[in-house]
Automatic annotation (TrEMBL):
Location of the LUD domain: 104-213
Region annotated Disordered, chain positions: 15-41
Pfam families, per database record: LUD_dom
Protein name, per record: Lactate utilization protein C
Organism: Streptomyces hoynatensis
Length: 215
């Protein structure tokens, strides 16, 4: 018996007592599993997010709203960025102190080659997941098109805390619309060969910096 036949046989046995006319919607499925392991502990959630982002080799910074423009300007200057992609809905004050950096508006007409020539990109996010250290972008006004977070080599992502931070993936999914262009980011782009030698920047930004804006 092949592996395929074994699997299909198990499926048939599992469905043996299910009437053919029954649809999945007719049978309620209990969803009583835990959605999070640290409900209500916002400080613990933020610490978990920061730790897991760092585990994935993202560089984590903490600031308040008033200090965000200076932080972003400092990060771009340290990178030597001369140009930055700007989503259409990015709050203009975020880049107010980035003097001498050319702002490139996110445009559908931009080619991958043109975006590759831009030094950095600054975006917001839709939600950040503490348990996995994952940032999710959904193409919102302060995030722009998916490709702007995949092509420039340096990505600065701003997370508003605590309102954009959740503990777990189940909590994140409740906030997200599956028809939107979701990009899930866990650290800088990286891959490993058969020798487990890690190479960063293969499929996206080589450097990911996350600004946690504490409210």
């Amino acid at each position: 018996m092949s592996g395929r036949e074994t699997v299909l046989g198990r499926v048939r046995r599992a469905l043996a007592d299910v009437p053919r006319e029954e649809s999945p919607d007719e049978v309620p499925v209990p969803r009583d599993y835990l959605a999070t392991h640290s409900p209500g502990d916002r400080e613990r959630t933020l610490e978990t997010l920061a730790a897991h982002l760092a585990d994935y080799r993202a560089v984590v910074h903490r600031t308040d709203a008033a200090g965000l423009p200076a932080l972003i300007a400092r990060l771009l200057a340290a990178r030597g960025a001369r140009s930055v992609v700007v989503p259409a809905g990015l709050p203009p004050e975020w880049l107010a102190e980035a003097e001498g950096v050319r702002q490139v508006p996110d445009s559908a007409a931009d080619t991958p080659h043109e975006l590759d020539a831009v030094d950095s990109v600054v975006t917001g996010c839709a939600v950040a997941i503490a348990e996995t250290g994952t940032l999710v972008l959904d193409g919102g006004p302060d995030q722009g098109r998916r490709r702007i977070s995949l092509i420039p080599d340096h990505h600065v992502c701003v997370v508003r805390c605590p309102e954009q931070v959740v503990d777990s993936i189940p909590q994140a999914l409740r906030r997200l619309t599956p028809t939107r262009p979701l990009t899930w980011i866990s650290g800088p782009s990286a891959t490993s060969d058969i020798e487990l030698d890690r190479v960063e920047g293969v499929h996206g930004p080589r450097t990911l910096e996350v600004a946690l804006v504490l409210g």
